[in-house]
Write a structure and sequence with these properties.
7-stranded mixed beta sheet, 10 strands, binds phenylalanine
């Protein structure tokens, strides 16, 4: 390649030269302008150029040198200007308000419930949301064709459009209790929070999923009195010392006897209001003594041990605490709603 071609080729590259930072710029300077750089190399070649061409080639090399220098200076200016921008930052200016997240109201209430029972010695237990029929129903004393299975509005899991009969979305967290009983011998004292699913039409008062906390205590000599005292303590811790409770007989396949617990309406103080339908009481949970059949099916000797269980909906408790009129607000993630709980924890 003739020296003129070499110069022309180098010249063409100059305009495309670019550097992302000072180091890269320095590398360019070395490549072109240092003693061993391209331009020095051309100067060496220049000695051998025929006398009648020296003028033309000399001018070309000078042009190249100027262009490289100009380009490198331009790039350098760019970096210097960027430094100036940094210098312009006013470190004393008030920061933009950082957008902090808040805990979800259901998380706040769940944590509070876990705390209250935690202080009474209940340990946390969790289990799968996609469960088998065995742990959601069979081990909990639901007979195969028991109508109570309908009561729970079960969601079945499908594969290739076929319902897998035994795999369901859990409809209560009692399934976790069944798993704990299978794996541990008494004393057992656990609290099981989690999401549950029921096939219900979505409205202000019902949703196809919600959250529960269920509790289980099994030991020698556990009685209904123990249950009642624990629940009274919970109600007072959660809703205040004046809160009253009442237990009404009820039915669950896995407890016998069973009850539903009401608390005095903490919105009207028991006088009667729209929330408690003017009765002064609101139902908050189901409970009872664990049916001996359940203990036996989970490998616990019902002649030695007795136990109680209870379960409540977290949304319900949150409604009572914060008077949320529409259940759907809990799952819509509208920040205007969520921000109202900024100060709640
Ligand atoms: N599992 C019941 C429900 O989902 C609640 C419950 C739990 C009732 C434990 C009694 C004992 O409605």
């Amino acid at each position: 390649m003739s020296i003129i071609d070499k110069i022309n080729e180098t010249l063409q590259g100059v305009q495309d030269m670019h550097a992302a930072n000072m180091e890269e710029l320095e590398a360019l300077r070395i490549k072109y302008l240092s003693k061993k750089g391209i331009i020095s190399g051309l100067m060496n070649d220049f000695r051998e150029v025929a006398a009648d061409q020296k003028r033309e080639v000399g001018m070309k090399i000078n042009e190249l040198k100027t262009q490289v220098q100009d380009k490198i200076n331009a790039l350098k200016d760019q970096f210097d200007n960027m430094d100036n921008v940094d210098d312009d930052i006013d470190l004393t200016r008030t920061a933009y308000p950082a957008a902090l997240g808040t805990r979800h109201p259901l998380t706040i209430v769940k944590n509070e419930i876990i705390d209250i029972f935690g202080h009474m010695g209940f340990k946390l237990a969790e289990g799968p949301e996609v469960e088998d029929d065995l742990h959601v129903y069979t081990k909990l004393n639901f007979a195969a064709d028991h109508p109570a299975r309908d009561m729970q509005d079960t969601f079945f899991v499908e594969q290739n459009e076929n319902v897998i009969k035994n795999i369901i979305l859990r409809s209560h967290t009692s399934s976790v209790q069944a798993r704990v009983m299978e794996q541990t011998q008494p004393p057992i004292r656990v609290i099981c929070p989690g999401r549950v699913y029921r096939n219900e039409a979505i409205s202000a008062r019902a949703h196809c999923f919600f959250h529960q906390v269920e509790g289980l205590y099994i030991d020698k000599g556990v009685s209904f009195t123990d249950l009642k005292q624990v629940l009274l303590t919970f109600a007072r811790e959660m809703f205040g010392n004046d809160t009253k409770i009442r237990l009404r007989p009820s039915y669950f396949p896995f407890t016998e006897p069973s009850a539903e617990m009401d608390i005095s309406c903490n919105i009207c103080g028991g006088k009667g209001c729209g929330f408690c339908k003017h009765t002064g009481w609101v139902e908050i949970l189901g409970c009872g003594m664990v049916d001996p059949n359940v203990l036996e099916s989970c490998g616990i000797d019902s002649k030695i041990y007795t136990g109680y269980a209870f379960g409540m909906g977290i949304e319900r408790i949150a409604n009572l605490k914060y008077q949320v009129s529409d259940l759907r607000l809990f799952s819509e993630n509208d920040v205007r709603f969520l921000r109202e709980f900024e100060a709640a924890y």
